[in-house]
Amino acid sequence: MRLLTFGLFLLSLATIVNTFAAEQHCVVASVHPLATDAGITAYQRGGNAVDAAITTALTLGVVDNHNSGIGGGCFILIRDPKGSITAIDGRETAPLAATKDMYVRDGKAQTELSTVGPLAVATPGALAAYDLAIRSFGKTELADALQPGTKIAAAGFPIDRVYAAKLADKAEQLARFPGSRDALLKPDGSPYQEGEILQQTDLADTYNSIAREGIDWFYRGPFAKNVDNWMREHGGILTTRDFDQYQPALRNAIVTDYRQWKIVGFPPPSSGGVHVAQILNMLEPFDLRAANQRDPVAATHLTIEAMKLAFADRAHWLGDADFARVPVGLIDKDYARTLAARINAERSTDVPNHGEPATFDDRYFGRHTTHIAAADSEGYWVAITATVNTTFGSKVIVPGTGVVLNNEMDDFSIQPGVPNAFGLVGAENNAIEPGKRPLSSMSPTIILDRRGQPIMTVGAAGGPKIITQVVLAIIRCLDFGQSLSEAIAGPRFHHQWRPDKVYVENTTDELLIQRLKQRGHKITTTAHSGISQGIRRRVSGDLVGVHDPRVPGKVARTAREAIAK
């Protein structure tokens, strides 16, 4: 039985008197047209935005599995028509045999072990979270959501330029593992080229088996046993016991005020929800709109300085709140004002270490990536950020499964001060412990107006740059008055405290770069700073979706006519 039900009551035309057709809409945005289309079809066949989002996510696990899939994890934010917010934590967990120093050899961290191969894999959580979401809020079944991906995996699909580039870049590492080589490379070991057809028959069989037998097939049946056997043979520590004990967690969403809006974010083990709120809290005392109109460099400088302060706190305080003491005071307005007071409006300043919220010792939170946005006219808004961590995760596919396994263990602090694949450093709160969820930058976010009605959802991919992408989308829309498409398309910048440099996209105005340098900022240019997706509600009530123009993607809107009194 559904935990919650919603939607129009579908009544027989033969028994209806004085009725009219009411058009219902759904918008879906994702990084791949086939996945977006699958989500739209799920809605047209009687689902809602939750069904659409989960179907999109599972299809991305086929056509975009260098970023996400059922071998990885996710965070899901759902706002229902009654205004309730649900946060489903499908983050991976460390194997029960994991130890704090498992990647340390002769006193030195061996980062290769946490990024490639069997020891890099944490227990996957995405499938369990998708199942929970669709059982709790959807109108269809998980088997229905798996169907489009199953068909695409079996028939094959033409890979786009992004997928082709990722394959070419990781082909050598993928070739080290027979299951990965057989599933993703040509028989001679070379990568597929753009436009060539990639079939994944093993993945299709896995999806079919889950659809037929439920997620127990994955967590307590043949899939878990296959992974266990492979790990034992290749020096891994992930076992059937890890799969059997995995459960998605229901969290309390972070809800904070920013000017006249409410920002809904994901709590720890996401650092995103905390630090999106913290950065916005620091910026709130400043008149960003006036600063940007007067001098865009001034607004950019203020935002960079707030990012720097937040990421210094991230490195020290953040971790899985079920295991570590993560202070609620990080999102306190008074603490933000003390941090904001440290910002020099004219010059870049060094941030030597983290701050200390006033209540850091007595109030705590309770115990590569893609983003999907979906919303419908009935009032369901869904933000899902999913990942296998870096490109193709651990590069491991256990033969016969077709599933790319994550390398999420690298998101732990494998040794104090040692940066992970994204250059982030961590402390004790994010150290490895059995069953613990590693810290994540995933930041699914929903913005509400003063009446509590959703007006926007946004999320991103790109490691720590997820947090800053979300912040930039929010301030560009809410403070600068830009459309969501302008906000997402505009050149981005990012600072994560260490290393002490500002990453700016190479489309950034050269004069702005030079003037930032004059203020003392160290600048590094990059091709792009992640990928964002979002949906915004117009004053008219229309839903408008946006996909990031930096990569191929698709937004689709569909109408479904239902009978209403």
What is the number of strand segments? 22
Spatial strand arrangement across the major sheet: 8-3-2-12-11-1-22
**Rg (CA only):** 23 Å
Query: What portion of residues belong to β-strands?
Result: 15-25%
| Largest sheet geometry | 7 strands, antiparallel
- Percentage of residues in helical conformation: 25-40%
- Poorly predicted ranges: 1-22, 360-364
Structural class: alpha+beta
**Shape, per Cα inertia axes:** globular
- Our measurement of the CA-to-CA distance between the termini, rounded to an integer number of angstroms, reads 26 Å
Oligomer, anyone? Answer: single chain
Number of H- or I-type helical stretches: 18
Chain-averaged pLDDT: 91
Structure description:
- The protein is 34% helix and 19% strand.
- The chain is globular, with a radius of gyration of 23 Å.
- The N terminus is likely disordered.
What is the element layout, followed by pairings?
Layout: E1 20-30, H1 33-44, H2 49-63, E2 73-79, E3 85-90, E4 104-105, E5 108-109, H3 111-115, H4 126-137, H5 142-155, E6 157-158, H6 161-174, H7 178-184, E7 197-198, H8 201-213, H9 216-219, H10 222-234, H11 240-245, E8 249-251, E9 254-258, E10 261-265, H12 272-283, H13 288-294, H14 296-317, H15 333-340, E11 369-376, E12 381-387, E13 396-397, E14 404-405, E15 445-448, E16 454-461, H16 465-478, H17 484-489, E17 493-494, E18 502-505, H18 510-518, E19 523-526, E20 531-537, E21 543-547, E22 554-564
Parallel strand pairs: 18-19
Antiparallel strand pairs: 1-11, 1-22, 2-3, 2-12, 3-8, 4-5, 6-7, 9-10, 10-15, 11-12, 13-14, 15-16, 16-20, 17-18, 20-21
Helix pairs in contact: 1-2, 1-5, 2-4, 2-5, 5-8, 12-14, 12-15, 12-16, 13-14
